[in-house]
Amino acid sequence: MFLDYFIENFLVVYILEIGAALAGTYYLRKTRNPVPNSKLIVGYLWLVVAVETIGLYPAFNYFTDFSYMPFLKETSWERNIWLYNAFQIITFLIFYIFFTNQLQNKKNKRIFKFITVIFVFTAILNLILTDIFFEKSSAYSFIMGTFILITLIFVYYFELLKSDKILYFYKSLVFYISVGLLLWYVTITPIFIFNKYFTSASPEFVKLHSTILNISNYFLYCMFIATFIICSSNKQKTSKPLPGKRYLS
Length: 249
What we know:
By secondary structure, the chain is mainly α. It is built from nine helices and no strands.
């Protein structure tokens, strides 16, 4: 049954994804001056929920024998790989915009804006000129996208170290989001590189892959939830700063 399959494999992560989106919405509603572009991250979290919901259609069709979507049977759209290939590019684009706008150095901003345009263009071109769009996850998009994102996050850390904001980093929404994403991509990238072993012929790798991915997702979305709630509390307490005292924006 589809419902049993969903509960066993996706329910916990799905609940955490919705929880992260709701926590982000709570942060935006309760915070007088939210972090710049935080709406972009919250919107992304709701997009994650939507994509994950739509992405269940292959499993639904499998368990219902295509009774509700017979037009997809034996077509390129039968699997959801195309959806996640497209979403992967959108994900990196959103993160690049978010972290680039946190940078203070104008030269660094221009460099990463240029890199973002080049990445999106080449990633789309890669999907168009190869046969992977419907067949398998794009290694180029994931590996190159991860490399750029990690570099961007470290540039953000470097600027943070050089600024007064380092004194209040423990209150920073951006800092905690960056840590969550950094650890997630560092953990997931190795298993993605060996994704060719994700077949019925390698059940041990399939189990390892699923375990690492689930644990990483639990960590990431729990961190999003905690971050939004804690930063909402911090912002409420410091919404009226005392004269002469500097607060982290």
